[in-house]
UniProtKB/TrEMBL annotation:
Keywords: DNA-binding, Transcription, Transcription regulation. Gene3D superfamilies: Tetracycline Repressor, domain 2 (1.10.357.10). It comes from Streptomyces pseudovenezuelae. It comes from the Bacteria. This is TetR/AcrR family transcriptional regulator.
Amino acid sequence: MHIQDSHWSTASAIAPGGGAMGGAMGSTMSAAGNGRDASRSAPLRVDAQRNLEHVLRAAREVFGELGYGAPMEDVARRARVGVGTVYRRFPSKDVLVRRIAEEETSRLTDQARAALGQEDEPWSALSRFLRTSVASGAGRLLPPQVLRVGVADEVSDGYDGARVPQQRTTPGSGELRLVPEEDPMVSADDAGAAALLEVVGQLVDRARAAGELRTDVSVSDVLLVIATAAPSLPDAAQQAAASARLLDILLEGLRSRPV
């Protein structure tokens, strides 16, 4: 698994070094918004509904394997439909990318809320979220506005850690950090990403307060675990085994140790 932020440049809300989705993506979405809404709500014929499901399934697979830079032709080929069929449902690649990213972000948020609500023990809740998220493969499709990391060379004066509870950065330390919510690169359309960050922040806070999570572990670290613990291998059994083994190692790295 490799993080696909470099492939998001034409479709990303926030790719490192890229622009805000409110620009190019926003204009695309406003022009094609009716098409996206129709793809979700308008009643479809049986064959059209089947084609839509095939396209969405193929898009998850292709983008999960190759990143969001994969061409629409690859999606159409995997779905066994013509590329024109894909464009009839999704007027631009940006629309399809956003649809997949939104669904995967929502899935992760649901998994985090389930772990938070159904596990009494803080560490059990965090580890359950990580295991279910990695097993679902959603980490391969995390959009950059969720997995927004960089080297913390400087700490912004306006950053108080509100977006990522107790997020710590040390100048020159090379520590990974999430971009603060007030960053101008963050689009107003990122409600789904904000919801995910909020609930994962609660899982992190609980585990840290219980003394079960290393004090230097942040939300960005947890999301990086999800993104990197789901390698894409040609053999499904090998992939599952590799993911489970890698996650066990990463979980041990997250746990606090008695001094």
